[in-house]
Please model this.
Amino acid sequence: MNTPPSTDAALQNISPSIKYISFVLLAIALGLHVVLTTRNFDSGFLAGHEFRQAQTGISINFIQRDQDYALAYPTPLFGPPWSIPMEFPLYQWISAWIGTQLDLTVAESGRAVSITFFYLCLPAMVLLLRNIRMESTHINYVLTLVLTAPVFIYYSRAVLIESTALCWSLWFLYGFVRLSRSPHWRWWLLTAICGSLAALVKVTTFMVWGTGALVGGIWWFAKIRQSGDTNRANRNLMWAALSAVPPMIAGIWWVGFSDTIKRNSPDGQFLTSAQLRDFNLGSAADRVDSEIWNELLQNFSLALFPASLLVILGLVTILLIWQRRVFLPLILTLWAITVWCAFPGLYQIHDYYFYAMALLPVLAIGFTLKEVSRSSVGRTIAPALVVTISALQLRGYFEDYAPTQFMQSNGGGHMENFIRDTFPTDSVVLMLGYDWSPSLPYFMQRRCLMIRDVLTQDRTALNTLFDRWTDVPVGGFLVANSYRENTELIATITDRFELETSVIVTDGHADLRVVRDLRYRLHANMAEHPNNHKLQRPAGAETLIAPEPNTDLIVADGEIHPVTSNQAESVFYLIHPAPKHYRTQLGIGTGLTPQGYVMITHPGGEFWVNVDANATTITAEFGLQEEVYQDPHDHSDGVSFQILAVDAAGAETQILERYIDPFNHLEERGKLKMSFPLPHPLPARLRFAVLPGESDAYDWAFWGNVVVQ
Model:
C-alpha cells in the first residue's frame, strides 16, 4: 500500500527528532545502568544466588591466593585434590589476575570483569542488528530496553560467568552472520574462537545462540539454493559446518576433562555431567508441569518485565503475520520459549539463567516497534512504548533486586567471620550438618571438607572418604543443626582427625571444635576481643581443657634445657608455638586459677620460642596469682614480665617490659592481656622471662595463652 505524499513528508519531518529522542533514551539508560551496577560495588555480600556466586568466588580466591592457574582449578569443598571444575575457568582466571594486579577483593574483581563483559556485549548487539538491517533508531530502542532490564543490571555485577558466556556467544553469532554472507577465513576465525570460548565457559548459554545460528544457517542455505546458486549455497554450508566444529570439539573435550577431575574427588563425583544430566535437562513431565511453568514465568517477570507483556507481544506478532507477513518477532518469541522447554528446571530455579536468553524477547519488541513505526502514529508512539516498558523493568528492579543489592553487609555469619579472622590460611575445616554449601567456605576463605548428608548414612563410604584424607591438616570441625546431638559420629570424626572433644565456641546454631595447637590462637583472639563476633563460650569450656599429664619433670637447676614433646603438651601447652628451650631455678608448672589454667613460674623462669617467617604479632596473658597479693603483711612487691628478641647470632634486644604490682594497683590484678606487632626484621626467636622486684618473696607469677603468629 502506497503512503500518501503528505504522510511521507510528515515522516521525514519527524524522523530527526525521533532519532534524537531514541539517542537520549539510550544515553539515560546507559547512565542509569552504570550507576546501578556499580552501587555498593565494594560490598562483600554476594547479592543474588549467593550459593552459586560463592562457588565461583571461592575458586577465584584460591586461584589468586595460590597463583594456581591450572585447568583443574581449585574449588576446595570436598578435600583433595581440591578441584571439581564446572565451567572452563576463563572468567575465574581473568578475575584472579585483575584482583592481583589492582589489589581488589574477589567480589570487586569478579564484579569488574562481569560488568566489562556485559559492556562488550553491546557492540556485538549493534553489529548484529545492523547486519540484519535494523536502523539506528530501533537499535537504540533495543539497547535501552537491554540496559533497563533487571537481569542485565543485577546479574551483570554478580560474581558469575553469565556476561562472559553471553559476550562470546553474541560475537560468535555476529561472526557467523558475516561468514554466511561473505565467507572468508577471518570470519571463520572469529566464529571459531568466540564459539569455542562460549561453549567452554557455559555451554547452556552457547546452546541458545548456537541453535539460532544452526536454524538461521539452514534457512539461509535453503534460500540461496532456492535462488538457483547451488555453488554458493554449498560453499556457505561448508563454511558453516567448519565454524561449528571448534565449539563442538571444545565443549566435548571440556566435559570429558572436567568429569575426569571430578571422578578423582572422593566426594565430588555427584557433580559429573552424567549425574547432573537429569537436573539440567529435566524430564518429559517437567515440560508440561503447570507449577514449573508458573514459577518459570515468575522468574521471567523478575528478570525482564511482567509476563503479561509477553502475552501481549505474542498477540501483536500474530497480528503482524496476518497483516504484513512479518514473521521475525514471532520467531524470536518462539525461540525464547523453545529455550525454556529445553531447560525447564534450570529456568524455574534460577532467575539468573534468563541472562542467556533475555535478549530474545527484547529483540522481538525491537522488531515489533520497527514494524509499528512504518506508520506515522506508530513512529510517534514508539518512544513512549519504550519508556513505558523500561519504567516497568526499572520498577521491577527496584522492588525485587535493589533491596538486597543496596544492603550494607560484607556477608558471612559470625562463625564464618570468626574462622576467617583466626584460623591459619592453610588450615582445613571439616563441616557437618550443612550438606554442601560454597557460601560458608567462601566467607571463611578456607579449604573445607564438607561431609554431605548422604555420606552420614553410609559409614563405609564415610570411612573410605576419611581413608583418603588422613594426612589432611585439619584445624577445626564445625557441626550444625541436628548433627550437634550425634555424639557417636562427632566422636568418630574428632578421634580420626585428632580434634579436641570439647566445644571451644558456639553461635547457638553450630559448634566449633579445634585441634589443640589452634586453641591457643583462638583463646588469645577471644581474650583480645571478648565479644568476638557475638559468639559464646560453652559454660565451663576453659576449665574443661586440662593439660596432658607431665611425665618429663622440669629440671630446676638454672641451666638451659630442651623442651620435650610431653612437656610441650603438659607444662607449656598454653604456649604456641611450643617453646624449644626453658630455664628455671624454682620450677615451672601448671595450675588452675579463677581465670582458667595458667603456666606458673617464679622469677628466674624463662623459655624460648622460635619465630615463624610469617609471624606478625605477639599476644600474651600474664599476671600474679591471687594469694600472693591478698595478705596485707606477706605479699609480693611485684614482678617484671619481659619479652626479648634474639637474632640468629644470639644478640638480644628487649621489645617489652611490663612491671606489675597488684598489691598496690588494683587494676593489675587477675589475668592481664597484651598484644603488639613483632619487630622488623623478624627475630629468630623470642625469650620470655620473669624478673623479681626488690624481693623475690611471694612472686609466683604466671603466663596464660601466649601466641606468636
Observations:
- The longest strand covers residues 652-660.
- The chain has three domains: 49-270+285-405, 414-544, 561-708.
- Residues 49-270+285-405 form one domain.
